[in-house]
Structure formats: structure tokens, C-alpha cells
Amino acid sequence: MIQKKVNQSIVDTVEKAAQYLMSDLGLSEPVTKTHRTIWELFLFFLREKKMDLSDTSGNSKFLDYLLENRPDLLRRGHSPLHSIKLLREYLRSGKILNTKEPWVFHGEIGTNMQEYIAEKIAEHLRESSIQTYRIQLSRFLRYLSKNEIRRVEEIRVEHILIYIKHLPPEHKSNIYIAISIVKRFLKWLFDQNRTTLNLSIQVPSGRYVQQSTLPAIYTREEIEKTLRSGVDRGYSTGKRDYLVLLLAAKLGLRSSDICNLRFENILWDRSVLLIEQVKTSRMLELPLLAEIGNAIIDYLKYGRPKSDEPFILLTANSPFRKMKSASIFSITSTSFRRAGVETANRKHGPHALRHSLAARMLEGQTSMPVISEVLGHGNTNSTMYYMRVDIRSLGVCVLDVPPIREGFYEQFNWKK
Predict the structure, then answer these.
(1) Buried b (16+ CB within 10 A) or exposed e, 316-340
(2) How many domains does the chain divide into?
(3) Residue 400 domain-assigned?
(4) Rounded CA gap, 229 and 232, in Å?
(5) Is-contact 135 103, C-beta < 8 A?
(6) Where does the Tyr recombinase domain lie (predicted)?
(7) How many CA atoms lie within 13 A of 245 on its CB side?
(8) Axis-axis angle for helices 325-338, 220-229 (nearest 10)
(9) Quick one: which of 248, 251, 290 has its CA closest to 268?
(10) How far apart are CA 104 and CA 82, in angstroms?
(11) 283 CB-near residues (< 8 Å, 6+ apart)
């Protein structure tokens, strides 16, 4: 095993590259975490073996090391060589132009997968759903190829069960998604007469029940402190990040809606924001608060890069494009930390600001239908999630326990 002695230069390098992935390229926290783990191991590996980063012969030796010591990193459908390529590109140019592994659907099985995905596109699934299908099916195909499975008729139930067994256990929802998509694809193969076996009936149905947890809540003082001290509005990125925080904290917008905010959504003459929510496709009208309007103007005049993009919030580095939800998470999390707000055991992304807004409205005796309307919920059932944190309102519902009448327990025939 590699003896990982603390080396601040390696730690700093990995941290800067990881921050770039989340803030500038909008990669999710789990994906960035995997890249960070591989980068750190790789740099320590090169240091111990006294090899230079430019020496590509270290790649295969590093893979051998992972196979022996960290096989879990090879089973996640993630290519360590891809991570190494990104690290080299970042250290060489300070940028990463392409972070996506190409979806390769080769051979007979890959051709069938492409046809299946084409049908899903024709069914008008959301682009995010189509991307999930591509990711999960390409990972399944990669697994089949490694096991010399080239044709549809060669797929056996034991292959599928082993694939499921080695899915990373950290995120149960991802396991459910992977199983569901593979199961649907197998059924499609049978329905299309591409195989004589309906393997889908032998695949266990993934079931994921998310445990009901209390939403993360921050006090009014903590949020104001984050807005005041979490970003430096003297810089262009600070102006952008401040606007992001305001939209989440004061209006409760989801990160997807913040990223998708367009110029046409701002009705200055009416002082309202009118958006079509990405998650629900429902229209939502919210007041354009003065501080948010001022923050928009400040960002447009002194912070936003010159671009013909229709989206208001853009990445800080060229090529300037719409921000991604992971970037919104990074901004929120970083701002909490810079402001010195304690986030231990609490969620610290933009949804925490949304939760906190709902909690404050409940404390202010705002009715449930009004809160539902502000948050863009289709019905009040979704909003009931937040009732559990309003202890003051719940206390009103507490009933007094009536006194127990004398002789109550004597009615039972207690056995000694």
C-alpha cells in the first residue's frame, strides 16, 4: 500500500483542481469526489515510485496498483485513466476543456442500446433522463465487454446479478436507477424479438425508499451572515455568487431554476419574476424584491461576461455558458464556510436555503397554500415536509392527557 505522508503541495493541487470541476465546469459533488480520490492516489503513487507526471508508463502501473488495492474504484463505471487525463490537462493549461467520457455503444449490444435510447427520445423524455439512460447503459455495456459478452443472446442472468452486486453501495438511489434501466432494456430486447429469453423477469426489482429526514434549517442570522460575509462583491464572481444566494435564500428558487433564469423571465415593469420551473414545468410568479433587482443590475453592469447567451448567470471562465446545478451547490457551500457558519450535520447546498425560507414563513404564521405557491409546489402535500421543523406551530396541536380514573388498572387481571 502507498504510505500517504502529508504533502501540502499534493493536497493543494488536488483541491484546486476539484474546485475547478465544481465551480467552473459544474460537475456534481459525488463525481468530483471520485476524481479527487483518484488524483490524490495517483500523485502519491508517482511520488513514491519517483516517476514524473509526464511519464505515461505510470498509467498502467497505477491501474495495477488499483486492481490490487482499490478495486472499488474500478467497479464504479468510472475510468481512472480519464481522471488522470483531466488532471494532466489542468496542470498543463489551468483549464479542462472536456470532462465527459464519450458514450461508446459498440457492437451488437451497443447498437440495440442506441435504438432503445432513440425510442426514449421519441417519447419526449427530458434530456436529463436521456443522459441517465446513456450513462447507465454505457456502464452496463462496458461491464459486458470486459467479460467478453458481445452478443445479446450471450447475456445470462448471472452476468446481470454480478453487475448489480458490484454497483457502488454509497448511493442507494443510484443502484435503484441502474437496476431499473437495465431491467427495462432487457424487457425491450425481448419485446422486440432480439432475444428468446425475457431476462427482465429474473432481475430483482430495485426498490428505494428514501428515509424521511428533517430538512436542514439555518437561522435568519446565519443566512444574513452568509450573504454579508460569504462572498466578496468587489469581484465579478462575487457579484454573481451574491445573486445566486439571494435567489435561493429570499425566493426559494431551486438550483435548476437559478441556472435556467433568462432575461425574458424578468418583468421589470411589473416587478416580478415569471419562470417555468424545470422540475415541474409549472409556471411560477414571484415578486422581484428590490435587493434582488439591484443585485441583478450590479451583476449585469459590472460582473457578467459579454455574451449572447440568453441565460443571466454564466460561468466565470471562457467559453462562457449557462451555469450548472453543481456550481450552485459549490457557491452555497463555499459561502457558508467563508462566513464561518457551522454546517456540521446539516445539508449545506442551495436546498438548505429553500428549506430555511419555508421554515421562516411557517414561523411567521404564513398559510400552507401560500408557502406551496411560493415554493412552486403542485400541492400542499409536498409542503407538509417542512411542518416537522416548526416546533412552535406543532406545539399548538398538542393535546392534554386526561387524568386516569381511579381503579383503571384494576380492570386488568394481572398475573403475578
Answers:
(1) beeeeebbbbbbbbbbbbbbbeebe
(2) 3
(3) no
(4) 7
(5) yes
(6) 213-399
(7) 28
(8) 100
(9) 290
(10) 14
(11) 274, 275, 276, 277
- In tens, the pLDDT along 219-228 reads 999 999 999 9
Say whether both 321 and 195 belong to one domain: no
- Distance between CA 247 and CA 353 in Å, rounded? 9
381, part of any domain: yes
Highest average pLDDT, of 2-11, 265-274, 371-380, comes from 265-274
Q: For 44-75, write each residue's pLDDT tens digit.
A: 888 888 888 877 777 778 877 777 777 777 65
**Interatomic CA distance for residues 356 and 250, integer angstroms:** 10
**Same domain (yes/no): 67, 27:** yes
- Cell numbers at residue 222, please? 446565519
The answer to whether the CB of 339 falls within 8 A of the CB of 229 is: yes
Question: How many CB atoms are located within 10 Å of the residue 5 CB?
Answer: 9
How far apart are the C-alpha atoms of 30 and 16, rounded to whole Å?
16
